[in-house]
Design brief:
It is built from 16 helices and six strands. By secondary structure, the chain is mainly alpha-helical.
Length: 436
């Protein structure tokens, strides 16, 4: 069998199962009893194992995704002496469709999608609140994973056919958004009928959001994000009304990916000691030059090194400190983003007073004085500034500048060499058969 034919086996459920089992050793508190561990029966996989495997799978190659979107969005550099693609093809605007930067995050997200689809199959063996809870969880996570790949591909679209048939074309961006919306809305409906508790446990990353009622708030938070990506401002406000948005709550309130050092677990690959002799993940120098004096979002998220690093004709002295250890968590979505989503929705609807109130809440938390929004254009400028500093290295800057048509405002560091990329190419593994 050729490598080309092997691609058609995607997603490969047996491999997925083994990944899920290994992941569940860390994330699951339940027992894993299999009749024959050398030939596991997929039909007997416990729901808990699949849920834990999905959570663990969300973390796989997420660091590559964050590094890539941060580099193309000129939030950061990634100085990797062993692989210059981060400072080469990504910044030249020519990523290799067969390379790991394109393929690994894409494939990792679809492995989780396959896990969620298997959960939905398993849900058919349940009834009532248990079935609704499994469906609500699976469709929410499936939609979130597809959204990350859509962020990567944008107008190139994503796969919504999961058969592995390479000759079925990619779904358009519009079709993808509609599919994601539908899954989030169906999940939300299911969660209303899921009772007081899930028939499985979630990790500490979902602390406070681990019941159907609270998980539904997480679902609506994602739904609001999807709505503003499409300029559906009233939809965003409606979703936020049922989310965990809290103007009096901590900006960090939210849902996270968690990491650990236990057997089979995964550490946070974003973390580096900011005072190490050589740091790979470094902030773009404009993050300092464009910052307001006294902005704690700047001082808390970067460390100014005594000596600047120059690599591949790029120079910065700003080490990234969004994580403080190799087991520090990374946000999926949190209150600070929700406040800025509500501000954006209100700007889109012409409600500048309401938008100003939310922006100033975020600014106050960062130690900054309030601002006044005077018109729509100035309000968008201010919104993008706040999102840049509030959501630094959370995967938003490139997406934000693209959706507002401002990619041409991102800095070009090496004239005549660098170019701003607008989307990732379709992975080579997803290209149709050429014949034969």
């Amino acid at each position: 069998m050729t490598r080309r034919h092997l691609r058609k086996l995607h997603p490969f459920r047996a491999l997925l199962f083994l990944i899920a089992v290994a992941s569940a050793m860390v994330l699951s508190c339940g027992e894993m009893n299999f009749p024959n561990p050398n030939a596991p029966d997929l039909e007997n996989v416990p729901i808990q194992t699949l849920v834990s495997g999905a959570e663990a799978g969300m973390r796989i190659d997420y660091a590559i995704y964050l590094r890539a979107v941060s580099v193309v969005g000129r939030e950061a550099y990634y100085f990797e002496p062993a692989d210059p693609r981060y400072t080469g093809e990504l910044m030249f605007g020519r990523p290799d469709p067969g390379g790991f930067i394109v393929n690994r995050p894409w494939s990792a997200r679809y492995r989780v999608v396959a896990d969620c689809r298997f959960l939905l199959d398993k849900a058919e063996g349940f009834s009532g609140a248990e079935k609704a809870g499994i469906e609500g969880y699976a469709k929410t996570i499936l939609a979130y994973q597809l959204l990350l790949n859509l962020n990567y591909m944008d107008e190139n679209g994503i796969k919504l056919d999961f058969s592995g048939d390479l000759n079925i074309p990619m779904a358009s961006k519009t079709e993808a958004f509609a599919f994601i919306e539908t899954n989030l809305d169906e999940a939300y409906t299911a969660l209303q009928n899921a009772g007081n508790a899930f028939p499985f446990q979630l990790s500490s990353g979902f602390a406070g959001f681990d019941t159907p009622e609270k998980f539904a708030q997480f679902n609506r938070a994602l739904r609001a994000r999807v709505a503003i990506y499409q300029n559906k401002y009233q939809d965003a406000l409606n979703a936020l009304d049922n989310s965990f948005i809290d103007p009096n709550g901590a900006m960090t309130l939210g849902v996270y990916m968690v990491y650990g050092t236990g057997l089979g677990d995964q550490t946070n690959e974003i973390y580096e000691n900011p005072e190490a002799p050589f740091v790979k993940f470094m902030a773009h120098p404009s993050f300092e030059s464009d910052a307001e004096a006294g902005d704690q979002r700047f001082s808390n998220k970067v460390f100014k090194r005594t000596t600047a690093t120059t690599f591949d004709d790029l120079t910065t002295d700003l080490a990234i400190t969004v994580t403080s250890s190799a087991i520090d968590r990374l946000p999926i979505i949190r209150n600070e983003e929700l406040l800025l989503i509500r501000a954006e929705a209100n700007i889109g609807l012409g409600n500048l007073t309401a938008a100003q109130a939310d922006i100033n809440l975020v600014r106050a938390a960062a130690g900054l004085a309030p601002v006044t929004l005077t018109d729509a254009n100035q309000a968008i400028d201010q919104l993008l500034h706040e999102r840049r500093y509030s959501l630094f290295i959370e995967g938003h800057r490139w997406v934000d500048m693209r959706r507002f048509g401002r990619l041409n405002q991102l800095p070009i560091d090496r004239a005549g060499k660098d170019k701003i990329l607008d989307k990732m190419p379709i992975p080579e593994t997803e290209l149709p058969e050429s014949g034969g």
